[in-house]
Amino acid sequence: MTARTMFEKVWTAHEVVPETSDTPAVLYIDLHLIHEVTSPQAFAMLGASGLTVRRPDRTLATLDHSTPTTSDQIFGKVPIRVDAAAKQVEKLEKNAAAFGVELFGMRDARRGIVHVISPELGATQPGMTIVCGDSHTSTHGAFGALAFGIGSTEVGHVFATQCLLQRKPKTFAVNVEGRLAPGVTAKDLILAIIGRIGVSGGTGYVLEYRGATIEALSMEERMTICNMSIEAGARAGMIAPDDTTFAYLAGRPRAPKDSAWDTAVASWRALASDPGALFDASVDIDASALEPMITYGTNPGMVVAINAAIPNKADDPVDKKALDYMGFHGGESMLGKPVDVVFIGSCTNGRLEDLQAAARILRGRTVAKGVHLLIVPGSQQVKREAEAAGLADIFKAAGADWRESGCSMCLGMNGDTVGAGQYAVSTSNRNFEGRQGVGARTLLASPYTAAASAVFGKISDPRPLL
Ligand code: SF4
């Protein structure tokens, strides 16, 4: 039999109707994750057509994108302050009840960012097809799932049919070897990969991250890697499931149990790409040569090692526009640039290990005067775990603003925004113009670099603090 890639195996197992030159494939979807921002239009489509949600048991809703992160608005009697957010929350509550979809509501202990809670629950499993109306659905590829973001209209299609029309992507092997140096994280690795292949280097492909470096990563680190696949333009990112994956999933509430677990693990083990499987493209990355990374421009591919200077590309109009927006110049050092806001959170770096990394830097130190350090756990479970481990106490003692879970300043829809012209070091995934607020200037980095920059009030190399 021909050697097949992991993507090929998952795709074929879900192909209801193969694609032709004229028509896309019909792909079956195992898990549909929804939230308050991209679902209202899709529910309205269903209602207008007199349709129901075909598989409510394969649909899971949470509130994250525009929900508040202050405790008074979640648990107190204080109304949601952002009017649009209040309407979206109310709409999803009504739609979930009307269409029989399970919703983790505002005060549910399981609520959190959609890409954090599904793995936490064990709902995300190897070999699945998973979609959500959010680009960073690629996160779930860390489990060997084929997971990607869809638009509001497609959310409606999946509601109605549990299927999706899709053109089959090509495959791209990202081979990573070498040990990451101390202070260099999975976030730095994915930023370096995007810097290497470019923000459209993955367009039309599903990336498979492979090699000894990837195999040595924890599941949380693998999620950070797959999360940002979309920032390289890829349809999705995948990592072969292995013992690390199975140890993470074992015992989680929605993971298979007893003999079903053994059967599942046996089938999951067979998902890895076969030896000799051919990919349409590949790149080799030496992880041992990497340093902490930070973005200087307005897309995640505009990235340098923290000790490096901003590239001098005066002739490149895209780079020039980005540097004008950021108020930077080619040839300048990134180190020492002043910082107004630091955001630690999001589906990229809002998990427990990320908060542990931040706490390692912040323990016994204080946030520089004039800097707002906002730390937002990825889920209520992460919040509880961080509080039980004493991390929240470290953050508060350092002067950080410790919140309830949500997307928060990743996209600023809930009122957690960066002011015009302000500089924010952020552990999120997008540094587009205005992503964190009108005129906000975002610099993407790891939790280590973000925390160190908060301590010094300027862009700082975290390694001397570790
Ligand atoms: S944290 Fe940001 S990227 Fe992640 S789901 Fe929320 S808005 Fe999307």
Characterise this structure:
It is built from 17 helices and 19 strands. It is an alpha/beta fold and 466 residues long. The chain has three domains: 6-166, Aconitase, domain 3 (2-Layer Sandwich); 170-240 and 267-288, Aconitase, Domain 2; 292-465, Aconitase, domain 3. The strands form five sheets. It has a five-stranded parallel β-sheet with strand order 5-4-3-6-7, with helices on one face. A five-stranded parallel β-sheet has the order 17-16-15-18-19. A four-stranded parallel β-sheet has the order 11-10-9-12. Helix 2 links the parallel strand 3 and strand 4 (59-62). Helix 7 (186-197) packs parallel to helix 9. Bound molecules: iron/sulfur cluster. Iron/sulfur cluster (SF4) is lined by residues 64-65, 113-115, 134, 136, 346-347, 407, 410-411, 428-429.
**Computed CA radius of gyration, to the nearest angstrom:** 21 Å
Strand order of the largest sheet: 5-4-3-6-7
Give the name of the CATH superfamily of the largest domain.
Aconitase, domain 3
Percent helix: 25-40%
Oligomer: single chain
Which percent band covers the strand fraction? Answer: 15-25%
How confident overall, as mean pLDDT?
97
Distance between the termini: 50 Å
* Number of DSSP helical runs: 17
Overall number of structural domains = 3
Low-confidence stretches: none
List the ions, cofactors and other small molecules found in this model: iron/sulfur cluster
From the helix content, strand content and strand pairing, which structural class follows? alpha/beta
Question: Main β-sheet, in a few words?
Answer: 5 strands, parallel
CATH first level of the largest domain: Alpha Beta
CATH-level-2 architecture of the largest domain: 2-Layer Sandwich
Query: If you consult CATH, what is the topology of the largest domain?
Result: Aconitase, domain 3
- From the spread of the alpha carbons, the general shape counts as globular
Q: What is the number of beta strands?
A: 19
